[in-house]
């Protein structure tokens, strides 16, 4: 599984193999924290939903356990959170 995190209102997404996201670097702003928002399978099809370069993301996840990305600008919204953020 890949755990997807958001960072405040910055639009930056963090993808981690750790459920707690402990391997993610410091959030985009000192005022923001990483908040887990999604869980997806480790596949390019699952990552395509987030409008990122899925091949690069998978490579980073395999080599260092995390990937940081800003979604490509599109009119399509990200999927709804599957649970409330804590």
State the gist of this model.
This protein has helices spanning about 45-50, 55-65; strands at about 1-5, 15, 35-40, 65-70. It is of the alpha+beta class.
In total, the number of domains comes to 1
Oligomer: single chain
SSE topology string? EEEHHE
Strand content: 15-25%
Class from helix and strand fractions: alpha+beta
| Poorly predicted runs | none
Helical stretch tally:
2
User: How much is the radius of gyration in Å?
Assistant: 12 Å
Main attributes?
alpha+beta; single chain; globular; four-stranded antiparallel β-sheet
Q: How is this fold's topology laid out?
A:
Layout: E1 2-7, E2 13-16, E3 34-40, H1 44-48, H2 54-64, E4 66-69
Antiparallel strand pairs: 1-2, 1-3, 2-4
Account of the 3D structure:
- The chain is α+β, with helices and mostly antiparallel strands.
- The protein contains two helices and four strands.
- It has helices at 44-48, 54-64, and strands at residues 2-7, 13-16, 34-40, 66-69.
- A hairpin with a 5-residue loop joins β1 and β2 (13-16).
- The two termini are 20 Å apart.
- The mean pLDDT is 84.
